[in-house]
Amino acid sequence: MDDRSDVGELGDLVRRTSRALRRITVAAAEPYGLSPHQLRALRVIAEADRPRPSDVAERLHIQARSATDVIDQLVGSGLVERTPHPEDRRASLLHCTAAGRRALTAIEAERGAATAAYFAVLEPAEHTTLTQLLQRLNAEGPECPTQPAAGTEAPRWRRT
Fold it and tell me: Residue 2: helix, strand or coil by DSSP?
């Protein structure tokens, strides 16, 4: 690809890479009964200081009801605990359990090793260049589509 005329091929290559990385995540999370969405929520909860469900929804860029569904699944699996908010009886706080932290640590280790193996075909300089290019696209590129605008099928754009 010597010029910018074949952006379709570039898009296809990025999508194939994205799918491969998603398969790595699925394979790492599957033994723990977690989907990639549940894994992302578990990570957000583990990294935050007792977030509210609304905080998780905001961090994941999803609707509150969707976050509640994912959180309920994590609570049901014993990976997350929900406790009453001490100052707001309508709200709850979330906490990653010891089992949740163990699962997250194991999944991230497996995922990290598989991701490193995937990118091992790149020379160190190529790895650095690819990282820099992707960082630039994420920082400076147009916002990415999220959901259709009201009354249309076309997505609106938002940076994630």
Answer: coil
Question: What are the strands, taking DSSP E only, across the chain?
Answer: 80-84, 92-96, 144-148, 155-158
Could you give the angle at the alpha carbon of 53 between the alpha carbons of 48 and 58, nearest 5°?
Answer: 75
d(CA 26, CA 34): 8
Q: Look at the alpha carbons of 78, 24, 45, 54 in this order and tell me if their dihedral is positive or negative.
A: negative
* pLDDT 10s digits, 87-105: 988 889 999 999 999 999 9
CATH of 28-138 given 1.10.260.40, 1.10.10.10, 2.60.40.10, 1.20.58.100: 1.10.10.10
What is the spatial distance between Cα 117 and Cα 70, in angstroms, rounded to a whole number?
A: 30
Tens-digit pLDDT profile for residues 32-89: 999 999 999 999 999 998 999 999 999 999 999 999 999 999 999 999 999 999 998 8
**How do beta strands 144-148 and 80-84 pair?**
unpaired
| Domain residue ranges of the chain, discontinuous segments joined by + | 28-138
Q: How many residues does the chain have?
A: 160
